[in-house]
Specification:
Keywords: Covalent protein-DNA linkage, DNA damage, DNA-binding, Hydrolase, Lyase, Protease. Residues 313-327 have a biased composition (Basic and acidic residues). By secondary structure, the protein is an alpha+beta fold. It has a single domain (5-292), classed as SOS response associated peptidase-like (hypothetical protein yedk fold, Alpha-Beta Complex), CATH 3.90.1680.10. It has helices at 11-17, 125-132, 236-243, 250-253, 288-311, 325-331; strands at 5-7, 20-24, 29-33, 36-37, 49-52, 57-63, 89-96, 115-117, 136-141, 143-149, 155-161, 188-197, 208-217, 228-230, 264-267. It is globular, with a radius of gyration of 28 Å.
């Protein structure tokens, strides 16, 4: 499952972080290409946040051919056999939580479809129809949060992300290096699908672009944390195939949807539990050992306070004698 992410880069930096190699001179050479940023219709905006919840608009990488269709009903056949070139990629913020094009409740229906299970996307019409239209996308984020529940039902949040490089001081497994032009964090790239809801004829409003993140069974090395994880596209070639709906058929593209362990993670503060908390403290690493010691110390302090209270004799204890008010009164007289 993926129900909370972080996305903290500005639009310009997101485009730079998505730089990739592109062929030039008929394939004789290569250059670095960057996708263009495209604002969503209707004044909807992307806001950076260390704690992103469903319903937010977040950056999504797609083929710009989706925006060249003459009508909303045109499907993948228009571009069948036509390769999606790297320069055709654009980044547009979309609402997290799929709102089907036929929905009568666009303001609320997306919250129940933030994820799309891999084993059900081709059997459920809500997901199958957009995929048949070639509406494949790549959801961009710094990383995502997941909560581990222990045997005592206590929950601990973790932040999961791509290591910056193979020389990072955290464990790194099977990670493809990013382009040299970008030296910042490597964005996570989740496989997703999107749909476009449009107001009925005669009604006011703008089209709403929304998406679901495809999820798979967790990799065996991450299954202790949670049984599900987002489908991660690891590297340019996988991203290119997923977006290239014109030449890469859906069946072949679905082969890219599988568990991966090319990530790292660290425990974070319980601040992230409340979506109102948006600060950087949400994804800073915490020391679980110190946290346990602090919790234990607090518990010991509480037990000590309670035990002192128990040593006090109750008021109805026969051994406790009330002071005689009259005796006190006479004692004050000389």
């Amino acid at each position: 499952m993926c129900g909370r992410t972080a996305c903290t880069l500005s639009p310009d930096d997101i485009c730079k972080a998505c730089g990739h190699s592109a062929a030039v001179d008929g394939g004789k050479g290569k250059r670095t290409s960057y996708p263009k940023w495209q604002n969503p219709p209707g004044g909807q905006k992307y806001y950076t946040s260390y704690n992103v919840a469903p319903g937010s608009h977040t950056p999504v990488l797609v083929s710009k051919k989706h925006f060249e269709l003459d009508s909303p009903e045109e499907d993948v056949k228009k571009h069948e056999g036509e390769e999606v070139e790297e320069d055709d990629w654009v980044i547009q913020p979309m609402s997290w939580g799929l709102v089907p094009h036929w929905s009568s409740e666009p303001k609320t229906s997306g919250y129940s479809m933030i994820n799309a299970r891999h084993d059900g996307v081709l059997s459920k019409t809500t997901f199958k129809r957009p995929l048949e239209k070639g509406r494949r996308c790549v959801v961009l984020a710094d990383g995502y949060y997941e909560w581990h529940t222990d045997s005592s039902k206590n929950k601990q949040a973790y932040f999961i992300y791509f290591p910056r490089s193979a020389t990072s001081d955290v464990e790194t497994v099977n990670v493809e290096q990013e382009t040299p032009e970008w030296t910042g964090k490597r964005l996570m790239t989740f496989a997703g699908l999107f749909d476009i809801w449009r107001p009925k004829k005669g009604e006011e409003g703008a089209p709403l672009y929304s998406y679901s993140i495809i999820t798979v069974d967790a990799h065996k090395e991450l299954s202790w944390l949670h049984e599900r994880m987002p489908a991660i596209l690891d590297g340019e070639s996988e991203i290119r195939e997923w977006l290239d709906y014109g030449t890469v058929p859906l069946k072949k593209a679905m082969d890219l949807i599988r568990p991966t362990n090319s990530v790292t993670f660290h425990p974070v503060s319980s601040l992230v539990n409340d979506v109102k908390n948006k600060s950087e403290d949400c994804f800073k690493p915490v020391d679980l050992e110190k946290k346990k010691q602090s919790t234990k110390a607090s518990a010991n302090l509480m037990m000590s306070w309670l035990s002192k209270g128990q040593k006090r004799a109750p008021l109805d204890d026969p051994s406790v004698k009330e002071e005689d008010p009259s005796a006190s009164k006479h004692a004050k007289k000389i």
